[in-house]
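Researcher: I'm preparing a figure for a lab meeting and need a structural model of a single chain. I don't have an experimental structure, so a prediction will have to do for now. The sequence is pasted below. Please return the structure as tokens so I can convert it later.
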Amino acid sequence: MKRKIVSWIMIMAILLNYSHINIFSSVFAEEKSISKDSKTEEQITKENNKILGLELSDSYLELGLGKEHNLEYKLITQDNYKEDIIWSCDNENVVTINNGIIKGINLGKATITAKTKDEKFIKSCEVNVIGESSNTFSNGDYYEFTLEKNKNYEIINKSDKQINISVDYSKKYDSIKYDNNGNIYSYYKNDYGSMYIGAQYNLKVGIKENDIKINIPNADKDFIEIKEVEGPLLYEGVLNKETTYEITNSGETSLSLKQIDSTTIKYDYINYTSDGIISSFYKNDSSTISTNNNKQKIRIKDEDYKYYIPYERKDDLKIVESQEELIYDGVLKSNT
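Model: Understood. Here is the structure written out token by token.
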């Protein structure tokens, strides 16, 4: 009888010990699985943060008609990470771009944009194509219309194709181009040269000190509507030197603060995520300031940053001034 009791006790002990091992193994496996999943999430986060910044070799460029220029870029990354960037041009009738090689094909202005695939980093370069125009025409082939000085006009293309309107390239005007959804596509101060209006696109122009005669191809004149509109078209502002600004853009799309002067203005800046976490920062940047829905802080260096934006979007920007220093400079000494 005692032997039976002892045997049952031993069997129960073995079973109990085995169940503990199973429980421990199950918990350990679960913890290992959780640890593995957490590591995967950490790796994904690290992968997304490998790109720390994007730089362009030029922020403003004058390019001769028919000439080419290599617009170089630099990705600032961790662990020698490499990624192709996405190039785009807002006026392909003036400038073409192929893997950073830009070519001036017509007189006028265009903005080249480079961005990372996640659109976290965006840089732009304004290109001004200058030189003698090769466009020739006779008045018999064109309908002539006069845009009067100190007035603003909207030119509407009602056709399903692009229409090119010839303009004396010595005459300057302000311009805002809209796509077929009514969104601002591009804008320039002191624009000049031919007006290229895409299918179902609109163009607003502000005429300066002199009347401008435009020439519309006779075959296209019935598709063009021209009407006078209220102004001004562009709003001009100044970010003062040695001053820090917190800038927020409440609009649905990004907005570039284009420089009025072509001089290189340097500034420090910090970009933040939607959660208020620092996503990137730079010292002595000189590219066009571009804003989005996330907060950014900018400190202008030695010269005022004079800019312009579409007047209709000036209320999208909230700019708060301060004297805050943004970037701390330190030194890591050698052999220490």
